């Protein structure tokens, strides 16, 4: 019986097959690498977007509270807190960064659970607004509690902080609030503001440091800032000004180099607009196709087409990163609510 001859693949056939397989693997690998780069780019961009939105939310949350419990004290040049250091009663203050650097934003408000932020001081009969018998005469003592710190704009010395030692029944009118100091009697109309117990005055400074949004606590000698949001590289802010201290409409947007806020003009500030720039955490291997500058704060025009706010731009320093700009406008509601 004849033996059947068996034959396999020749070397040439094996090499051709191997070459085809390698070409296929190279194509698949190229596709996977492209997909991986795209995925990394999308994830990092989304992270930057989340950081930008979170940064604005964190700033807006505090600015929306700015001035609560302090708006009646804007005539005070300074207050003293538990540490004895002077504290400005201004609800918000912008400090411009030199040489185009980021701004710093200071925010202050009262965060007390004692109730209303203040009440009107009264004079009934022979009673004065502030008594040397360590007592405030008020329309109502509702919302005040023993241990709360209060500030009287009618007291002498004006804007002195005292601590409540006794409170009459809120149903009694006028009410009497005892305090721990002896003040000179005054018949000048005034307001008694309640700062709540020690620790109720919130003072925060938002800054950009080490490519992140950071916050420092307790003015005026702020402690070392703490990290809030990573990869925030730039921040700018502008005051929204009314024509007068009783105005309710923003007629101009200016930065702190054009407007110095103080007790005489703080009433004109009724809004802030803030812009931040977020950056991806990691750089791309190649230059990113994006504009050379980003608009952080856009131009603002009134209904007549007149520009009332100039744009602020950010020049991208490293084109291997991806950048996104985010802007928000925040009404100072506590300033607006105090309008008469």
What does it look like?
With 340 residues, this protein is of the alpha+beta class. The chain folds into two domains: 47-78 and 94-109 and 202-337, no CATH class; 118-196. The chain is built from two helices and 22 strands. The protein has a seven-stranded antiparallel β-sheet, with no helix packed on it. The chain is elongated, with a radius of gyration of 31 Å. It starts with 10 loop residues before the first helix and ends with a helix. The model has no long low-confidence stretch (mean pLDDT 82).
Task: Draw up the topology in text.
Elements: H1 11-63, E1 79-80, E2 86-87, E3 92-95, E4 104-110, E5 118-120, E6 130-131, E7 135-138, E8 149-152, E9 161-167, E10 175-179, E11 191-196, E12 201-208, E13 212-217, E14 226-230, E15 232-241, E16 252-254, E17 269-279, E18 293-297, E19 300-301, E20 307-309, E21 312-315, E22 323-331, H2 333-337
Antiparallel strand pairs: 1-2, 3-4, 4-12, 5-11, 6-7, 7-10, 8-9, 8-11, 9-10, 12-13, 13-14, 15-16, 15-17, 17-22, 18-21, 19-20
